[in-house]
Amino acid sequence: MEDRPLADLFPPATRERWLGLVDGVLKGGDFEKRLVSKTADGIRIEPLYEPAAPVAQPVRAPGPWRVSQRVDHPDGATASALALADLEGGADALVLVFAGAPAARGHGLAPTDAADLDAALGNVMLPLIATRLDAGARGIEAADLIRDVVKARGETLKGLDLDLGLDPIGQLAATGSLAENYGSRIARSLADFDAEGFTGRACLADGRPYHEAGASEAAELAATLATAIAYLRALEAHGHDLGRSRDAIAVLLTADADEFLTIAKFRAMRRLWARVEAACGLDPKPLRLHAETAWRMMSRRDPFVNILRTSMAACSAGLGGADSVTALPYTAALGLADAFARRVARNSQIVLIEESNLARVADPAAGAGSFETLTEKLSETAWAAFQEIEREGGIVASLQAGAIQGRIAATRATRTRNIATRREALTGASEFPYLAEKPVTVLDIPAVAAPQLGAFGTGPALTCEPLPSQRLAESYEALRDASDATLARTGGRPTVFLANLGPVAAFNARSTFAANAFAAGGIEGVNQDGFTESAALAEAFRASGARIACLCSSDAIYATHAVEAAKALKAAGVTTLYLAGKPGDLEEALSAAGVDAYLHAGGDVLALLTGALAHATAA
Fold first, then answer.
1. Is residue 175 helix, strand or coil?
2. Does residue 550 sit in helix, strand or coil?
3. CA 594, 597, 598, 604: dihedral to nearest 10 degrees?
4. Which of 16, 197, 335, 399 is the one with CA 20 to 30 A from 55?
């Protein structure tokens, strides 16, 4: 018996051999169109990558990433109780979200003095955890409040793992207004804190405003890097040495459910910052890199899918090298999260760290062809985009000129088309909707107004067109909301009669496709039977109570029965008639018979559903 390793008994696996097998499967199909995709930045995603030589990659400090939880309940006592439950349940970092901050989503802490903030942090031992402030325009006032809390407790700023989160440029991007002397104001605040032993980060270059507006990965990286450099310049120009200015800056990137691009984006950010450090003549230090799961991917419909989205995003951010990860609760788009949703958010990360041990390797993507290639390409693309911002005068000047907004708008428009055509699928919203979903629990807390305690400086205001904050599923959710309103008013949802022709084997695929598509607009498909006689089909439609109908069957049956069936349905009172599939050579005959529109893959499903909902509910 031959005693050799099993692998030696087979020819070596090469790309050429693989391509030969692929050609056999494609049978003449276009390799590029079938197997190669591109990111929003035009970066190629290959179906297969060869191993890559590991590239020296800046990584986070040794140890797992921190599990960070939001503190955003307006009632101090409740906020304290929720925060303590998070910390006792395994979290080791808190984000204090203040009312009025863009990330507060209408809620947030609303302290008017240090005593109020201390109540919201009752029994929270700040020296044992990491803390980040997220206060929007109230950043400096919030920083002063946390300093007063520390003093009142007899503690010192020295040694606290504290990020003040001052981001005036992010505030400009999100709201369109900023005091012109913001640089001197944040520099003075940092000096005041440093005089009391502060060693943390004062400024935060935040990628969320750009991501929520629809930015691509490279655009978010470029804007965030340009913001960080603007703070570096401002702090140095107002008296801080370059080393301390560098150490006073942290970065926050969004993490979404695209594992490959999220990991590559976080790795690229560290490479880009190391390049800036080298250009400044500074010895590299680990960048403080925060992550928050993406607001734009959250959905209000079938919100349990958000658990999968945020878990994948948190995993990817951690693997990509984030120092702390904040997972949005799965009910975030519906309201203020209760204790259960908060527990799910933190436990998803605890499982990743403690049970899956994903934080034990410093850079698990090293040497993987896909991740190394994407990191390199994304770094190059982001650096080029950053240089464009610099040529425009820097991040503030680019925002004032509307240049960044214009580029993001173009990317957003492409993504909007992809969502409308379902090329980019949104599970639970545009794909696989569940009309019978049960409501989930959120805290019944009304939106709060933020106390007006000031902003980043005084004097003339810098202005720009604010970036929008949009979730991807909003357009489909609006249709579902209209359907819910009809259900509440009439006791039934809008319906579409599925005019199935022939046997089940002929109509099942397109009938299922049509039912799923119409449900994405809140329109319930009725009828499971197939018909061969037009008279019986018309009678079934009359009995259904529907106003609209959709023909469903195979191309072969369409060729012999669709025209007659369309005429019968129109005669029976169908106001709008759809056909599942493309009409092909039958288009003229079908249109003449009364078919109004065609439902097929690649078509503008959102526009079709908008019209269908209007026709289905017309008086």
1. helix
2. strand
3. 180
4. 16
309, 471 Cβ separation under 8 angstroms: no
Q: What is the CATH number for 294?
A: 3.20.20.240
> What gap in Å lies between CA 410 and CA 412, rounded to an integer?
5
Q: Are residues 72 and 198 in the same domain?
A: yes
The DSSP code for 364 is T
CA dihedral for 402, 407, 408, 412, sign (positive or negative): positive
Two tokens, residue 115: 């005593």
Q: What is the mean pLDDT of each run of 10 residues along the chain (619 residues)?
A: 68 85 88 91 92 88 95 95 97 96 94 95 96 95 96 94 97 91 94 96 98 98 98 97 97 97 98 97 95 98 97 98 98 96 97 94 92 96 98 98 98 97 96 93 77 60 94 98 96 96 96 97 94 95 96 96 96 97 95 96 96 91
Residue 483 resides in a domain? yes
Which residues constitute the domain of residue 571?
476-616
- Examine the domain organization and report whether 71 and 201 are in the same domain: yes
What is the DSSP track for 563-587? HHHHHHHHHTT-SEEEEES--GGGH
Distance separating alpha carbons of residues 619 and 617, to the nearest angstrom: 6
pTM for this entry: 0.94
Asked if residues 239 and 279 have their Cβ atoms less than 8 Å apart, the reply is no
Host H or E run for residue 533: none
* DSSP state letter for 126: G
DSSP label at 459?
A: S
